[in-house]
Amino acid sequence: MSSRTHFAAPLLLAIFVALILYVSLYPFQFGADGPTAMEVLRTLSWARASRGDMLNNVLLYVPLGFCIALTVEPRFGRLTGIAGGLVGGALLSITMEIMQGSIATRVPSLTDLSLNAAGALAGAIGGSAWHALGVRMTPQANPAGRSGAIALVVLVLWLIARLWPFVPDASLRQLKRAVRPLFTPEFGWADLTAFFVGWLVVAQAVFHLARRQRSVDVFLIVIAVVLVGRTFTAGNTLEFAELAAIALLLPVLVLISRVEDRGRSALLAAALGTWLASVALLPALGGARDVAVELPALGEFLGRNAPPPAELAGRAFSYVAFTWLLAGTGLFPHVAAGLTVLLVVLLGLMQAGAATPVYGWIDVVIAIIAGILVTRWRK
User: Fold this and answer.
1) CA separation for the pair 170, 24 (Å, rounded)
2) Where would I find the H helices in the chain?
3) Cβ atoms of 370 and 342 closer than 8 Å
4) DSSP state at residue 297
5) pLDDT tens by residue, 12-30
6) Which of 93, 185, 284, 285 is deepest in the core (most CB within 10 A)?
C-alpha cells in the first residue's frame, strides 16, 4: 500500500460529480407530484438504448471511478480503491435514476444504472493503474536549469491549440457531438503519433514547472482540462487518437523517467524534430519517384496563407518546444534557436511544388520569435 496521496483527485472528483449532476438532471424541471424513491425503483426496467447513449453512460462515469480510486487507494489499498469506485459510481447512478423519475423528459432504467457502474469500475481500474505508475513517471530529480517561463509558454500554447475558440457550450447537444467520434473509433497513425509526441512534450514542460512530488498530479489536471474543455467548448470534439496516445504515454514516461534531464530533452527533441520533418517529407515520398524537386519562387513562398488560430498556436507550440528542448540538451540557446529556424526553412523549401504546402513564411516568422523567446527567457 502506497501512502502517496493525490491532491488533484478530490478537486477533480468534485468537478466530475457536478458534471454528472448537470448531465443527468438537465433540464432541471422536476414535477411537483413526482413518484417516491421506492416507486421509481419498482418501475426500473431494462430499457433499450442506442449505441451512442450506451457509450455516453459508460464514459460519463469513467472519470468518477478514476478519481474515487485515486482518493481511496493511497489510504486503504488497491482493492478498496477499486471497490470504492464501483460502489460510489453505482450509488451516485441510482440516486440520479431516482431523481430522474421526477423529470418528465428523462427515463430512468436499469440499463443506465448498469452502464454507469461499468464505467465507474473501468475508471477505478484506470485510477489504480495511474496510482501504481505515477510515482514511476516522475523524473528521479528536479530538472537543472528549470527555465520555467519557457515551459509555461509551451503549456499555454498547447492549451490554446487544443481548446480554441474558448467559447463554452454546456449543452447536451455539444456533449453528444463531442463524444460522437468515439462511437466509431477510427484514427490514423499520423494523428496518434502527433498526439503522442505532443503530450510527451507537455509532460516534460509540467515536470519543469511543478515540484517533483506534485508534478504527476499537475499533469493529470492538464489532461482533465483538455479533455473536459474539448467536451464543452463549441465546435470541439474528443478524438480517439488523443485518448489512445495518452494511454500509451504512461508506460513510456515510466521508461524515460530514469533518464537525466538532458537525455530526456535530447530524446524529445529528436522525436519532435522527426515528426516535423515527416509532415513535410511523407507526402513527397508517397508520390511519384521521379518528381523533380525545385525551389519555390519567392512570391509563391510568401503567398502561402497563414493557418487558423488553433493551428497557429500548434505550430508555435512545436517551434518553441523544439528550441527549448534543444537548449535543454546543453546547446547554447542562440545555437538552438538557429537550428530551429534552419530546420523550418529547409522544410518549407522541401515542399516546393506541393499542392497544399504545410510550411510557409509564417512558420519562419514563428520559429524566429520562438528563438528570441528561448534566448531571452531561458535560465
Assistant:
1) 13
2) 8-25, 37-43, 51-76, 78-100, 110-137, 148-163, 172-179, 189-209, 215-231, 240-256, 261-285, 298-302, 309-328, 333-350, 361-377
3) no
4) P
5) 999 999 999 998 888 788 8
6) 93
